[in-house]
Each structure stands twice: as C-alpha cells, then as structure tokens.
C-alpha cells in the first residue's frame, strides 16, 4: 500500500494522521510514561540524548551544505560562516539558543547584502 493507492478526497488526511501523528505520539507517550522512572544520569538516557543531538546536528549540516530553494543560490562559505558565527555567539553569550540563531541570521543577512545577492 502506498500514498497513491487510494483515490479518495479523505485519504491524504488519514495518511497524514496515521503516519505523522499516531506513529510519533505512541513513542512520546511511552517516553513520558517511562521518563519519570529513569534517572537523568542513566546510561540509556545519556545515549538517547546523544542520538537526538546527533540527529539535530545532521539535519542542520544537511540544510547548510545541501539547501533547497533560494538558499541554494547562496555561496557555501556564507552559509558556513553564518553557522559558525551563530555557534560562536551561542557559546560566548550565555549558551542561549535564541542568541545563536539571531547571530547566525544577522551574519547571513549582512553577508547576503554585502555580496549583492
């Protein structure tokens, strides 16, 4: 069975509901249920946190190195420089995510206009 196997108006909505919501929420509910019983310093929770962090880093790296749309028309050094500046801003200004994002955006926008793109 695939997404195109049923030709009804309601099928895409049901597909999104089942594939996107039920499949992920079961794990979320299990995480909430078991999360209260697991120590924050346990090996399994450290592993889960490390895998989650690695997945986020991989998604960010993929978006920076192989972007789509208008971002693909910008030079790679500009994208890498903005990401590096955002990370440096995050580390130097109190490890706040919002600060890192703001610094990366400011560097990217300034570089974008400086290059005349």
From TrEMBL:
UniProt KW Membrane keyword: yes
The protein, known as: AzlD domain-containing protein
Pfam family, one: AzlD
Membrane-spanning intervals of the chain: 12-34, 46-70, 98-115
UniProt entry keywords in alphabetical sequence: Membrane, Transmembrane, Transmembrane helix
């Amino acid at each position: 069975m695939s997404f195109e196997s049923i030709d009804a108006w309601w099928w895409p909505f049901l597909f999104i509901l089942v594939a996107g919501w039920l499949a992920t929420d079961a794990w979320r509910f299990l995480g909430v249920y078991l999360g209260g019983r697991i120590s924050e310093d346990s090996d399994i929770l450290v592993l889960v946190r490390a895998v989650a962090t690695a997945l986020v880093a991989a998604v960010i790296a993929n978006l920076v190195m192989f972007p789509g749309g208008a971002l693909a028309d910008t030079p790679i050094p500009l994208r890498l420089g903005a990401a590096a500046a955002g990370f440096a801003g995050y580390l130097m200004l109190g490890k706040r995510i919002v600060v890192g994002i703001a610094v990366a955006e400011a560097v990217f926008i300034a570089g974008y206009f400086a290059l005349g793109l």
